[in-house]
Amino acid sequence: MTHPAPAKATEIPVKDFRQIFVWPLVLDKKPGEKWIADLSEKILEANWEEVSDPWNLLPDKLYKNGNSLGTYEEAVYFHDFVRDFLYQKDGDAQQKVFQRKDLKTLTATIGDGTSDKDYHFNIDHCTLHFFPFGVAILTLELGFDAGANTPLTLDQAQTLIDYLRRAYAPFWKDGAPGLSPKNVTINDVPCGLGDLQDRTTASTAMHDRGFREPMFPWWEHILAPLVIEGTKAAKENKEPVFRQVLDERIPVMTTLSLTRGEGHRSNLERVSDGDWFRLAAADAAGNDPYPYNPDFLEKHRDAYFYDRFHAHPNIDQSGATRFLFAGYHFAAVGAGGFFDDFVTEHMRRHYRQMVFIVQLEHATLLMLSSRLSHAAKHKNLKNETKNFRTEVIEIETEFLNFTHRYRFTGVSNQLQGTEIYDKLRQSMGIDRLFDDVRTELQQTSEFALALEQRDATKAAEDLAQGAHQLTEVATLGVVLGIVVGTIGMNALFGEPLKNWMASVFNLQQGGLGLDLLQIGPVLALVAVATLCFVGKESSQKLKKWLRGLFICGIAISILGIFDLHPKNAAETPPAQNQTTQAETNEPDKTTQQTPSTNDLKAPPALNSPVENN
Q: At what angle do helices 430-487 and 540-561 cross, to 10 degrees?
């Protein structure tokens, strides 16, 4: 049996169109321990409700034959340890879940300004998950409202997939945000474009808000009261400020049913090869046969598609399904009753949980890498090794905690589930990113430890140097004590030595020269004695200091010898002249009392009384 010829996307009708946005947001700075509790109070004051038991987050789907598909079938699909994470009850510290039920409808206006068209959706699911290490994930499910819309075609679905996921304008075309809705209305209230109404306003807002891109108002409305970088509230609010970890393309899941009457098989097989690549890459509709170079796309075919149940003449077509992978986009496109009843529900449950786990890991790894960069920047700016090491240890602790509690390299024993989960991880480059962050963390940790050891070694050396210097000073004191103790204080500074020096160097008693002549030799003697005592063990600094002390002592001694006020005859007191005259009249007595020249030059005996002449 031959395949039907490919048709244009405008000629292929779409029965059902559903999108699930799984949008991770992170805190770059490590939050306080109570940040979730503090933020929860503010969230509960808005339109959010806390979900105490995630088991009942989605209602079971009932079928006409009495069968049902719900949380039970979803849970048994996963390993028990994965269930412990996904369905934790209130009070578990792993995560906190909130749900918003007031959002009912969303209308997106798509067009070029001349042929705008409104597309109506029901908001079937809106939740916020908070994790203690600083990650939040918004899950928003939109279901195409067939009753409020004209029939949808494949080309329109392609454009909606590309446009609805934009968090902010990637560029400008004809004065309007490119590849973005013209407007979005939530619950019949238009949100407008806000700061993105024109390029000038958007550029000014981005410049004034720390070069963070302003967000489309409808996403602000959905996330409120969360504060996101790039918004007005982020500049003024002191609450935790979240940021995106990717670009403007919010990660999204798409379920696209091409079932149409009894010809469902031909509708699926009529999709052209180029349109399959457009669907995989979440690209808008185009007129070219391929969105990119066909040879380039061919190299990535295996990575883009999972075809275990893709349409084929030799298999049952009721569940014909093709899964598409592009990292930021995961899609299931199929046709037939089984696809419409079961695969669509599996996308809402089983595969949504897989995407949730992969997006959580991807966002957390990027967040930890960013925190490492901030820690290194903080260290370079303030040169605070201790704080740097502390920050690195905290990040390393978060990494280990995440690895052991939140990272799942496998989630199910089901063959198809295992293969799809592996392709999800491969399309996001999770394992490569994990290895990169782990290596980055190890290198940073080793560097921080080396800095800490260097500082510890330097501190120990400084302490040892201080102790050595203290020892040298103590040695100097010991030598001085020995000198003084051996010779005696009177010998150094007593009256006999003063008189002797005054006589030898012809200095005036009580003059400055005599004092200098006493101090200088003592300093020189102490310097020489200390240098001889410590020898080679002394530091160069101490040796220089002692040499300077010796030179200083000699210089002081010389200054003392050349006193500016020497003793001379003109300054002899009158009483001495009278005594001399009297001594002239009594020659015998004078002769007996006047010492000889040799006696004057000989120093008096140590510790002996000084005779008065």
A: 30
Q: Which residue has the tokens 């102490």?
A: 526
CB atoms within 10 A of CB 332: 23
CA angle, 570 as apex, 567 and 571 as ends, to 5°?
A: 50
Q: Beta-carbon neighbour count of residue 295 at 10 Å?
A: 8
- Give the C-alpha separation, 14 to 204, whole Å: 41
Give the closest residue to 335 by CA, choosing from 261, 240, 443. 261
Q: What is the pTM of this model?
A: 0.76
Q: How many CB atoms lie within 10 A of CB 2?
A: 5
- Residue 384: CB atoms within 10 A of its CB come to 12
Structure tokens at 210: 């720390």
321 φ, ψ (degrees, to nearest 5) = -145, 140
Q: Is 539 left (phi over 0), alpha (psi -120 to 50) or beta?
A: beta
Q: What is the mean pLDDT of each run of 10 residues along the chain (613 residues)?
A: 80 96 90 84 92 90 83 96 86 81 96 86 96 95 92 96 96 92 96 93 91 94 92 76 92 94 70 97 95 96 95 78 96 93 95 98 95 78 68 91 95 96 97 96 84 73 64 61 55 60 63 65 73 63 73 74 52 46 45 44 44 39
Burial of 479 (0-12, 13-18, 19+ CB in 10 A): buried
Name 166's bridge partners.
Answer: 249
SS (H, E, C) 492-538: HHCHHHHHHHHHHCCECCCCHHHHHHHHHHHHHHHHHHHHHHHHHHC
Exposure string for 8-28, b = 16+ CB within 10 A, e = fewer = ebeebebbbbbbbbbbbbbbb
Residue 471: helix, strand or coil by DSSP?
A: helix
Question: What's the CA gap between 328 and 251, in Å, rounded?
Answer: 4
Residue type, 188: D
d(CA 241, CA 308): 43
Asked if 16 and 255 count as a contact pair (C-beta separation under 8 A), the reply is yes
> In the block, which residue shows the tokens 């407007």?
183
CA angle 358, 210, 230 (to 5 degrees): 50
CA 110 vs. chain centroid, Å, equals: 39
CA-to-CA dists, residue 591 to 344, 585, 587, angstroms? 140, 11, 6
Token pair recorded at residue 399: 């990494």
Q: What is the pLDDT of residues 48-103, one digit of tens each?
A: 999 988 998 998 988 877 788 999 999 999 999 999 999 987 555 678 999 999 99
